[in-house]
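$ ./design --mode recover --in tokens.txt
reading tokens...
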């Protein structure tokens, strides 16, 4: 009982730390490059919500290259505020700082703060979810600089990062032999994956990891002569079908023309990755390693981002990969695949913005926790026994 209480206390302290770091970021970070874009998209949805105009709601194509769910969430928040004047398109702002200071500074800061705090809440829930599985991983995620930054701003990252984590954890629970009703966990995983796709496509690498892991499991069953492969494929098909239905339902922009608009959205990203802006930035193929192994937000925002421990997490994660694979009752393989598939995507994809690294920070934190457990093995036995008795670690 004491160990359980201490574990809950540890999770509470982790959550409080995560909140303090994100509140500092949400209230003090300067405006970032994409924030006005999603802010304006949210305002357009807010106008349609206030008017009760479904046709207008489903035909908002501003920022249509991304799924609509996060911008709809921002719109729901903004709809609770009094209407404001139409926000001019970014090309008419006369510079980012101009709109932030001259327009947002006068009229919109309350809405802007509300949107940032919505991201903050999703980010905190993600830390809580990870900490419930592994307090050490939750602590590392709580202080991770890129995660703190991009889940405290008017960006698209916080919600799909949370739902991707939920999709993987629910799948792991469905695969547990101790689970009485695995179908419910499969359904939760599918719903969470559908919401992930409806929020931001790149976070669906978590779903690819689930698919790869379960196919790996089915191949192993087939080689062992088991006859449940057909049932497993049926489960996987139902899981994917439910995820697609949720993706469609949660992305109102697709409703009038699902195939055409989805194709156009995906084609935009393919073209953008080869476009002038990406070429001008000329980030090297190995740039994702720089994002993962350096706490650059600590340097970009001194006094605001104050936890420069990313390199520790990254190094521990590399150490922990070997031990993560068999962890969680043999279900840790999906976490390794999640990280490996995400990293492969980031290395191959030409667009290498820093916020993309957030598709890896949850599996990386869990792997780093496995690395810490390995280091824990070198601690004297009497110390481990004392800590285990007191904290349940």
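writing sequence...
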């Amino acid at each position: 009982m004491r160990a359980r209480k201490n574990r809950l206390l540890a999770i509470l302290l982790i959550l409080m730390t995560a909140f303090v770091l994100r509140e500092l970021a949400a209230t003090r970070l300067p405006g970032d490059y994409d924030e006005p874009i999603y802010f304006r998209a949210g305002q357009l949805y807010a106008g349609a919500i206030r008017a009760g105009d479904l046709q207008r709601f489903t035909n908002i194509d501003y920022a249509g290259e991304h799924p609509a769910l996060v911008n709809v969430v921002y719109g729901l928040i903004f709809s609770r505020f009094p209407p404001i004047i139409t926000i001019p398109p970014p090309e008419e702002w006369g510079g980012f700082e101009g709109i932030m200071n001259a327009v947002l500074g006068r009229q919109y800061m309350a809405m802007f703060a509300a949107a940032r705090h919505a991201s903050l809440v999703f980010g905190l829930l993600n830390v809580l979810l990870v900490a419930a599985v592994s307090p050490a991983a939750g602590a590392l995620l709580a202080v991770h600089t890129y995660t703190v930054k991009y889940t405290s701003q008017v960006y698209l990252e916080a919600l799909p990062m949370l739902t991707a984590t939920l999709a993987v954890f629910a799948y792991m629970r469905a695969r547990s032999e101790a689970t009485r009703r695995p179908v419910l966990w499969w359904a939760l995983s599918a719903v969470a994956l559908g919401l992930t796709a409806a929020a931001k496509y790149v976070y669906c690498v978590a779903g690819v990891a689930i698919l790869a892991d379960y196919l790996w499991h089915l191949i192993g069953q087939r080689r062992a002569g088991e006859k449940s492969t057909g049932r497993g494929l049926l489960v996987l098909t139902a899981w994917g079908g439910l995820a697609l239905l949720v993706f469609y339902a949660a992305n109102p922009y697709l409703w009038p023309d699902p195939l055409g608009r989805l194709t156009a959205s995906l084609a935009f990203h393919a073209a953008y990755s080869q476009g002038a802006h990406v070429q001008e930035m000329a980030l090297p193929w190995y740039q994702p390693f720089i994002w993962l192994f350096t706490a650059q937000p600590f340097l970009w925002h001194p006094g605001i981002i104050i936890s420069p421990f990313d390199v520790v997490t990254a190094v521990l994660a590399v150490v922990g990969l070997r031990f993560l694979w068999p962890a969680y009752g043999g279900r840790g393989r999906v976490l390794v695949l999640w990280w490996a598939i995400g990293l492969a995507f980031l290395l191959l994809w030409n667009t290498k913005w820093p916020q993309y690294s957030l598709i890896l920070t949850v599996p990386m934190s869990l792997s780093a926790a496995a690395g810490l457990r390995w280091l824990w093995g070198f601690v004297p036995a009497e110390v481990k026994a004392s800590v285990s008795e007191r904290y349940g670690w």
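exit 0
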